[in-house]
């Protein structure tokens, strides 16, 4: 794989700075924390705000709908500001989002507050990938991206393990308030990083150029993966609580199970994608996602299957986006890192808009979860077909 020639930032060291890895990993986790918070706290939100399953899904859809639209510009913002400033802005947006969430008392206000969460998510991959391409040598970037992307399942693990217990002991608002000081501390740490000397002052915000064929292929795969993952993370605890009669804490722990398995799988598959190549890695992951996704509706007869399905999906579907980001940071055929990262993220976020809303409508109209889980399995299967069909295009780009 070759480095992206459009990146002009200097490589400051021959090894990956540990402090940088901690920062970008934490930043990815904080940017996505609201998604797992909605899933883990789903039973609390439905009871407190008296909302339906489809309204719960709309919370996720608003967040990622905003992220999808703003991803048109997020890559340019990261290229214009540089990774350091873009990352600091990301963390300030996360802190502001959670401050509004804990102040809300109505469902409508909650929807409005989540717009800021979408703005943060649109900047997450462009800013963190920009930091990596600036400060990490090309031969180490796959590992750095894998570690960085593990912050997302780490957020799932943390949310699923802690939020239900904290919400039961205090309130869901008090539980979410703990995120604010962490995000502000990360923003301060970003400001203290070395300045970005590769930042261009000539860039102006405008609609991005149409994605080239390899980027379009990654966007299509990311769209399907995002659709399935968002439905899974939003509704798995509710399904376990309502249909499998699991307690609120045990149901929330399923999100933690996805998270802990996803941490290792993202690092592992980011390494393997260098050997197996990106298309083959994505094909393996999507086929495995179909198999494990099919276990979830079967868990009504054997509850232990839901744990196997959750862990398996953390090892497969949750790792797919990390592999896509390896391709973007390593390959020269996708264009500038910030721009390409934003476009691929846009596809991923678009899936997060479609998945929860469609799943919630299926639950409300059918009165059960079977149709929703069929949707999840189907979109993972389509992702597998896209991985197979686009294998030559992307292989030539990385």
UniProtKB/TrEMBL annotation:
Pfam families in alphabetical order: MFS_1 (PF07690)
PROSITE patterns: MFS (PS50850)
Cellular-component GO terms for this entry: plasma membrane
MF GO annotations: transmembrane transporter activity
Domain of life the protein comes from: Bacteria
Transmembrane segments: 20-44, 56-74, 86-104, 175-194, 215-238, 250-269, 281-299, 305-328, 340-363, 369-388
Membrane protein topology class: Multi-pass membrane protein
Start and end residues of each Major facilitator superfamily (MFS) profile domain: 20-398
Keywords assigned by UniProt, alphabetized: Membrane, Transmembrane, Transmembrane helix
PANTHER family assigned: BLL3282 PROTEIN
Protein name: Major facilitator superfamily (MFS) profile domain-containing protein
Organism of derivation: Streptomyces scopuliridis RB72
């Amino acid at each position: 794989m070759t480095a992206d020639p459009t990146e002009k930032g200097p490589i400051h060291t021959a090894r990956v700075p540990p402090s940088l890895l901690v920062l970008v990993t934490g930043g990815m986790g904080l940017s996505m924390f609201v998604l797992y918070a909605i899933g883990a706290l789903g039973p609390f939100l439905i009871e407190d705000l008296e909302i339906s399953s489809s309204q719960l899904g709309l919370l996720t859809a608003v967040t990622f709908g905003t992220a999808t639209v703003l991803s048109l510009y997020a890559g340019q913002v990261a290229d214009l500001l540089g990774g350091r400033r873009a990352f600091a802005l990301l963390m300030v947006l996360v802190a502001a989002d959670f401050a509004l969430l804990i102040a809300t008392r109505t469902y409508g206000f909650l929807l409005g507050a989540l717009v800021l969460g979408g703005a943060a998510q649109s900047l997450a991959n462009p800013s963190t990938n920009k930091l990596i391409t600036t400060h990490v040598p090309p031969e180490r970037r796959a590992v750095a991206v894998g570690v960085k992307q593990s912050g997302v399942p780490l957020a799932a693990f943390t949310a699923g393990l802690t939020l239900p217990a904290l919400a039961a002991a205090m309130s869901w608002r008090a539980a979410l308030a703990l995120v604010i000081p962490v995000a502000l501390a990360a923003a301060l740490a970003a400001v203290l990083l070395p300045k970005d000397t590769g930042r261009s002052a000539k860039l102006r915000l405008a609609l991005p150029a149409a994605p080239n064929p390899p980027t379009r292929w990654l966007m299509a795969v990311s769209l399907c993966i995002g659709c399935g993952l968002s439905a899974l993370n939003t509704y798995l605890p509710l399904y376990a609580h309502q249909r499998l009669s699991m307690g609120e804490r045990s149901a929330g722990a399923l999100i933690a199970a996805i998270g802990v398995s996803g941490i290792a799988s993202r690092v592992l598959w980011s390494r393997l994608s260098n050997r197996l190549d990106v298309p083959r890695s994505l094909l393996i992951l999507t086929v495995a996602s179909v198999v494990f996704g099919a276990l979830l509706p079967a868990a009504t007869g054997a509850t232990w299957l839901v744990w196997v399905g959750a862990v398996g999906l953390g090892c497969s579907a949750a790792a797919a986006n990390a592999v896509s980001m390896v391709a973007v940071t390593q390959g020269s055929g996708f264009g500038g890192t910030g721009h390409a990262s934003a476009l691929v993220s846009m596809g991923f976020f678009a899936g997060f808009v479609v998945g929860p809303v469609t799943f919630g409508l299926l639950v409300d109209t059918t009165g059960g979860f079977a149709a929703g889980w069929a949707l999840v399995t189907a979109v993972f299967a389509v992702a597998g077909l896209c991985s197979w069909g686009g294998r030559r295009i992307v292989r030539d780009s990385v």
